[in-house]
């Protein structure tokens, strides 16, 4: 994985000051790509790359340029292709030659051979930009799952892009301005965000499965190249199990390719256990030695753990069970609770936006430790979204509610905002985004009412909740130069499972029942039967006290930027009542009182560090 950035303006030549701007933009991405730096400048365009070396260290440098048929093509690319060998074999039959074995060269050659249709042939996670010098156009794209980010802005005839928001903000044309929509995003949608947007007025995010052209002749044009498709599912239960297992194991095995040390995350849950099992088996077969697995915990968490509807069991017993079963070299990273609270600042810097509180800062610290010994890690994100693992797939009240099931309390959230900043109807703002996604859910027209609703909930999860988790994972890991791969986000698997009827998907009346059945007899019974438990959070009162102190400091400083937006009396009430006005988590399953305080604190940090201008 890497960091990419650049800008193009066909109406002016690239100047020395533009070169300096390009360099400064690229320098913001050094954490994403600590191994190598590269820039490309032509008449009207500059592109820069910061490399994290994973495949073909000698021949994978970027920006990469190829001269074919008198034309020059140059690529900046962030990601991994998992069908590199197949594409390369096909391209060789078409007469193309290669200098190395990097997926970068295969991707660039795919564009040369097939033009913008090349994206239809890619299996992987990616965001990239290719400059076609002869036609004077930049082609850019983002993978269908939305694993790799691509931000852009069009200002004063200049198309500006980058892997992170901070790269765009380093360009003088892009200002950190936030309007009424941005305020609504932060407080009503956040830490999620409306697809295609950021909280910053002038910065957009390319939606998953979309690509675009910026040309001298036609300006900026964006189109969708991939989306879920509804199909009738006619496979029997046994055939469905076989196909799911085949697709998932193939996705995992494809993602084990690496020229640098690779490991897996292991929480003792079903998803990470499947990935770790498959990886350990492949390591044994290919003579790669013992697999290393990682988990996260907090100081004295066993002492303070509180069982809840969302988090019914602690991870440690199941981690030990699974690690022993696959004979992995397991490493538990135990985090200091004050350190988790203090790392909230770094999480804002990593994401360029307020994030998922300690659920985000702890991941950042975990990834920092993993990076000391490994460069690539496989993780279990996206399984719950496609197999129906969350409570809102089975809880009748959550399933039927005309709202994002992982988020509620819209009126209470809106009540935190000072009236002069609450310029949009909060409930309508949220509802319009909910209903537009529900209406876009692909259907055959022959679904039962139950299957119709499950497809709507799945579409909501893939388009919104999953994107929040993927953004958290990308920015928290790449902040330490660690590449995370997510096999459950394989598009072939996602589309197949999307169309499986709920009666099969919820086999034996269990959440993720089909996935459990698929690996029954392969994984230990206790892993198969374990009720879903989300990413672990700290239950230690030391962490709670840490964030309470941070909010108290804000309340005692009248110049705290968040107090310009948030009502002082409501923030005081939040602290005094321990968020008693919130009947549900702020977001997801874990953002309760300490996390709500942490999120408000992250907003304050963001406003301050990014010199956000409320317009």
From TrEMBL:
Swiss-Prot/TrEMBL keywords: Amino-acid biosynthesis, Asparagine biosynthesis, ATP-binding, Glutamine amidotransferase, Ligase, Nucleotide-binding
Gene Ontology CC annotations of this record: cytosol
Active site residues of this protein: 2
Domain of life: Bacteria
InterPro entries from the UniProt entry: Asn_synth_AEB, Asn_synthase, ASN_synthetase/amidase, AsnB_N, GATase_2_dom, Ntn_hydrolases_N, Rossmann-like_a/b/a_fold
One term of GO molecular function: ATP binding
Reaction(s) the record says it catalyses: L-aspartate + L-glutamine + ATP + H2O = L-asparagine + L-glutamate + AMP + diphosphate + H(+)
Site (Important for beta-aspartyl-AMP intermediate formation): 381
Domain Glutamine amidotransferase type-2: residue ranges: 2-217
Gene3D superfamilies per the UniProt record, alphabetical: Glutamine Phosphoribosylpyrophosphate, subunit 1, domain 1, HUPs
Binding site for L-glutamine: 103
Known pathway: Amino-acid biosynthesis; L-asparagine biosynthesis; L-asparagine from L-aspartate (L-Gln route): step 1/1
This enzyme's EC code(s): 6.3.5.4
Enzyme class: ligase
Annotated binding of ATP, by residue: 296, 379-380
Coiled-coil ranges per UniProt: none
One annotated GO biological process: asparagine biosynthetic process
Sequence similarity: Belongs to the asparagine synthetase family.
NCBIfam families per record: asn_synth_AEB
Protein name: asparagine synthase (glutamine-hydrolyzing)
Organism: Candidatus Monoglobus merdigallinarum
């Amino acid at each position: 994985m890497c960091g990419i950035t650049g800008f193009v303006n066909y109406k002016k030549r690239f100047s020395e000051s533009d070169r300096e701007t390009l360099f400064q933009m690229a320098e913001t991405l050094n954490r994403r790509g600590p191994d190598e730096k590269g820039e490309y400048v032509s008449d009207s365009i500059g592109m820069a790359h910061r490399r994290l070396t994973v495949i073909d260290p000698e021949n994978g440098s970027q920006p990469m340029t190829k001269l074919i048929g008198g034309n020059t093509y140059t690529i900046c690319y962030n990601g991994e292709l998992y069908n590199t060998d197949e594409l390369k074999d096909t391209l060789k039959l078409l007469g193309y030659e290669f200098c190395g074995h990097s997926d970068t060269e295969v991707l660039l050659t795919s564009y040369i051979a097939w033009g913008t249709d090349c994206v239809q042939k890619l299996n992987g996670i990616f965001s990239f930009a290719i400059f076609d010098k002869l036609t004077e156009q930049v082609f850019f794209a983002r993978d269908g799952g939305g694993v790799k980010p691509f931000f852009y802005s069009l200002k004063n005839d200049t198309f500006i892009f980058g892997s992170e928001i901070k790269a765009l903000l380093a360009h003088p044309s892009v200002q950190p301005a936030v309007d009424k929509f941005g305020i609504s995003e932060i407080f009503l949608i956040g830490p999620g965000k409306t697809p295609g947007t950021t909280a910053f007025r002038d910065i957009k995010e390319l939606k998953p499965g979309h690509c675009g052209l910026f040309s001298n002749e036609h300006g900026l044009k964006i189109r969708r190249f991939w989306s879920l498709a509804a199909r009738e599912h006619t496979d029997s239960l046994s055939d469905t199990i076989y196909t799911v297992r085949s697709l998932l194991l193939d996705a995992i095995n494809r993602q084990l390719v690496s020229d640098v040390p690779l490991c897996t995350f292991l929480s003792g849950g079903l998803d990470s256990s499947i990935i770790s099992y498959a990886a350990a088996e492949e390591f044994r077969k290919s003579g790669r030695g013992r697999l290393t697995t990682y988990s996260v915990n907090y100081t004295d968490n066993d002492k303070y753990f509180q069982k809840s509807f969302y988090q019914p069991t602690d991870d440690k017993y199941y981690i030990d069970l699974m690690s022993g079963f696959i004979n992995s070299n397991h490493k538990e990273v135990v985090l200091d609770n004050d350190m988790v609270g203090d790392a909230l600042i770094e999480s804002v810097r990593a994401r360029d936006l307020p994030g998922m509180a300690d659920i985000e800062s702890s991941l950042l610290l975990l990834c920092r430790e993993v990076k000391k010994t490994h460069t690539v890690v496989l993780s279990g994100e996206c399984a719950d979204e496609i197999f129906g693992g969350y409570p809102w797939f089975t809880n009748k009240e959550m399933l039927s509610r005309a709202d994002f099931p992982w988020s509620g309390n819209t009126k209470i959230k809106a009540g935190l905002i000072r009236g002069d900043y609450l310029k949009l109807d909060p409930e309508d703002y949220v509802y319009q985004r909910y209903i537009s996604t529900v209406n876009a859910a692909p259907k055959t027209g022959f679904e039962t009412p139950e299957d119709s609703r499950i497809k709507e909930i799945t579409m909501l999860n893939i388009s919104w909740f999953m994107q929040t988790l993927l953004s958290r994972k990308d920015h928290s890991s790449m902040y330490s130069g660690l590449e995370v791969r997510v096999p459950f986000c394989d598009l072939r698997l996602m589309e197949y499972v999307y169309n499986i009827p709920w009666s099969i998907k919820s086999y034996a009346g269990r959440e993720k029942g089909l996935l459990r059945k698929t690996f029954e007899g392969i994984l230990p019974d206790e892993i198969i039967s374990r009720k879903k438990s989300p990413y672990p959070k700290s239950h230690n009162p030391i962490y709670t006290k840490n964030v309470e102190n941070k909010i108290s400091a804000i309340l005692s400083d009248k110049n705290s930027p968040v107090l310009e937006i948030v009502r002082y009396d409501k923030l005081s009430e939040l602290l005094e009542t321990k968020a008693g006005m919130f009947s549900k988590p702020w977001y997801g399953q874990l953002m309760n009182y300490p996390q709500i305080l942490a999120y408000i604190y992250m907003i304050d940090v963001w406003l301050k560090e990014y010199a956000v201008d409320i317009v």
